[in-house]
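User: Hi! I have a protein structure encoded as tokens and I'd like to know what sequence might fold into it. I'm fairly new to this, so please keep things simple.
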């Protein structure tokens, strides 16, 4: 039997899908059936969804064969991470913002109707900050262009990296490194309730006179979110900063002397 000869004779079309679309299909199957398919097993669902979206089909019934559950538990974290992009519910952007106190707050206020799902930044240049940001989306692919246009109209330089495999596989976890020189920053790990606008509330409560020199946040769908934040604060204003944190009622811990921070993120002496 020649599979290729039979495929040429009986298969009408082949639809290719991305890794993100396969991960989204795995999530769809789980949401509907509470069963977990392997990537190859969810392939037919991913292709079916892409066909329906492309052809704008309504009022018809489609059948997809869901087979195979050969997936390791350790892979589920990767599937969950990529499914958001596959469902068009997360947009990944590289954005250039001014390196001045309050810029991050202004950026978040501009997107106040959306959740920031990820924000990676490390001080490097005295005039501009290059940030890796994830932004929630409506589930419609065209929403990505809307968000980018909104930012560009406000003067931000934006590069769309939603479909950039290198960015999703590696760069998002490597943004940062050592600052080019010692910044005299104080570093805190802050925990806050994961609800709409919680991150914006946190930034609004901080006095804009303090420059943020390091920031990492990722929404993992848990009840509480964690932020690693570096602040350049004069020693005589440290108590005022801690007062802001106390007023918010968030759990926090100073991590300036944490060995991992000092080895990989601290300013170069």
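Assistant: Happy to help. Inverse folding works backwards from shape to sequence: for each of the 269 positions I chose a residue that suits the local structure. Here it is:
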């Amino acid at each position: 039997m020649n599979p290729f000869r039979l495929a040429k004779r009986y298969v009408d079309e082949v639809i290719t899908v991305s890794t993100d679309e396969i991960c989204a299909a795995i999530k769809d199957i789980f949401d509907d059936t509470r069963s977990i398919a392997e990537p190859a097993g969810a392939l037919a669902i991913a292709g079916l969804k892409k066909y329906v979206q492309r052809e704008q089909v309504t009022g018809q019934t489609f059948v997809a064969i869901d087979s195979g559950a050969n997936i390791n538990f350790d892979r589920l974290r990767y599937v969950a991470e990529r499914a958001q992009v596959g469902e068009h519910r997360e947009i990944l952007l590289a954005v250039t913002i001014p390196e001045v106190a309050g810029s991050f707050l202004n950026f978040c206020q501009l997107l106040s109707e959306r959740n920031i799902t990820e924000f990676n930044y490390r001080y490097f240049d005295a005039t501009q900050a290059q940030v890796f940001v994830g932004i929630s989306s409506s589930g419609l692919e065209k929403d990505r262009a809307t968000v980018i246009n909104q930012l560009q109209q406000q003067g931000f330089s934006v590069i769309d990296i939603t479909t950039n495999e290198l960015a999703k596989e590696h760069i998002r976890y490597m943004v940062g490194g050592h600052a080019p020189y010692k910044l005299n920053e104080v570093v805190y790990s802050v925990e806050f309730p994961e609800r709409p606008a919680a991150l914006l509330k946190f930034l609004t409560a901080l006095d804009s006179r303090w420059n943020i020199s390091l920031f990492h946040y990722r929404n993992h769908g848990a009840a509480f979110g964690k932020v690693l934040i570096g602040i350049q604060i004069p020693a005589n204003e440290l108590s005022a900063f801690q007062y802001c944190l106390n007023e918010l009622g968030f759990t926090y811990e100073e991590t300036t002397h944490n060995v991992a921070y000092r080895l990989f993120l601290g300013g170069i002496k």
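A useful reference point when you look it over: The longest helix spans residues 19-33. Feel free to ask if any position seems puzzling.
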